[in-house]
Each structure stands twice: as C-alpha cells, then as structure tokens.
Amino acid sequence: MKKIVVPIKMVLDANMRPRVKEDGTGVDLSGMKLSINPFCEIAVEEAVQLKEKGQAEEVVVVSIGTSKVQDILRQAMAMGADRALLIETDEAPEPLATAKLIQAIVGEENPDLVVLGKQAVDDDCNQTGQMLASLLDWPQATFASAMQVDGDTVRVTREVDGGHQTLALTLPAVVTTDLRLNEPRHCSLPNIMKARKKPLAVTPVAAYGVDLTRRLKVLSVTSPKPRAAGRRVTTAQELVADLRAAGAI
C-alpha cells in the first residue's frame, strides 16, 4: 500500500464549555479553543501506525476551512503524517459537499485507503464517510474498532449489537474509525518542530467546482436545562414511592 489519505476536521475543544449564540442559531466559537476532532485524531494515529509497520509509504492529511485549520494539520503532521492539504473556505460545508471535496482530493492523490473519523463531535452527522464511499464506488467499513492490512485486503472489526463483526475489504477502500481503535499519541516537541517544515498546500475551494449551497437549516440551538437538585431518602420504601410518583416504575 503506497498512500493513505486522512480527512480531518477542526471542532470546539472537548475541554471547553459550549456557548450558544444569543440568537440561538448555533454555538458561539469566538475566543474558544479549537482542536482536531477526536475521531479524526484516531484516524491519523491509525494511518501513522500502518506506515510505521511498513504497510504504507505515505500519509496525507486533508481538511476544509479557514487558515486557522492549518493548526490541526500541523498537529497531524507532528503525529507522523507526511504532508497536508487545506481546502480554504469561510463556509462550513455540509456532509455531502465535504464528501465531494474529499472525492476530488482522492482523484488527485490516488490513495489505496481513506481513513476518517466516523463523525465530528460538533454536528454528529456520521455521514461523510458513507457518502464518500458511495461517490467513489469503493467498499467501506464503518465504526472500526480494529484494523489489519494484508496485501491488497484490509480486515476491519466493528462492534455491533450482537458482538463483533469482521469485514474483509479489497483496496482501495474507505474506513471510518471508532473510539476503541487506538489511543492517539502525544506530539513531542521535536516532532512539532519538524511538522513546521513539512509541506502544507493551500487551495481555494473554488478550484474544485463543488456546490457548497446549504440544504439543511438549523431551526434553533439551545443549552441543556440545568439538572434539578436531588433528594436524599432514608428508606427503600420512600425511594419506591418517589419513583412511582415520578412514573419511573
């Protein structure tokens, strides 16, 4: 296997408390720390591990967004990716447009494998990987909790309701990653410094001719209601009475 392409996305850092915009149209990201999507980070780690095992020659990361997205691309290269591509735009493409942009990159790079996070934690759409596989007409495996490459075949283990399911995909293929696939590494200072010298190409989104017109409308975004205070009970009978009163039993 010569090349792996890993699409990644910048999202609100998991340690930050989201703030809803005053008009209720979305989450206010002004002044907030942004980081690589956790599922995307797992995808980068898996691709780098495959390269370290000698099962891939090159790992290319790609992202879509403003110039700030270069930060997470540099992080991915500090983890071990060889080079990065940024499709620059001020828009936030919906999953179908994102899949079409990645399809264009795949056409340019001709990878043997595309590995991406199963979903982004900001919108939780869980659609881009499936749409990309359909557009490419490639075999796909979603929610990977284990991966093994053997020649021109990748075996992917998925967690399903009945236990575990293992699929054998003929390369080229698309795989989306789940949380239990691996534990992403921490970037060392020397690797962070090296990542600054690795190539990062920036291309305007208009160069790909993809329609970014939004087809989904967010009606409203609201903060979750504060949790009500609990009440301490002294006997099991009192607990059962309260549960019955609440309609829980």
Q: Care to describe what's here?
A:
The chain is α/β, with parallel strands linked by helices and 249 residues long. It has one domain: Rossmann fold, CATH 3.40.50.620. It contains 6 helices and 11 strands. The chain has helices at residues 38-52, 70-79, 95-109, 128-136, 189-195, 236-245, and strands spanning 3-7, 10-12, 34-36, 58-65, 83-88, 113-117, 140-150, 153-160, 163-170, 173-177, 200-204. The protein has a 9-stranded mixed beta sheet, with helices on both faces. A two-stranded antiparallel sheet has the order 2-3. Helix 2 (70-79) links the parallel strand 4 (58-65) and strand 5 (83-88). The longest helix has 15 residues, at 38-52.
According to CATH, the fold-level topology is Rossmann fold
State the end-to-end CA separation. 57 Å
Q: Please state the average pLDDT score.
A: 93
Which CATH C-level class is it?
Alpha Beta
Series of H and E elements: EEEHEHEHEHEEEEHEH
Structural class: alpha/beta
Short description:
The chain has 249 residues and is α/β, with parallel strands linked by helices.
Question: What distinguishing features does this structure have?
Answer:
Rossmann fold, globular, two-stranded antiparallel ribbon, single chain, 11 strands, 9-stranded mixed beta sheet, 249 residues, 27% strand
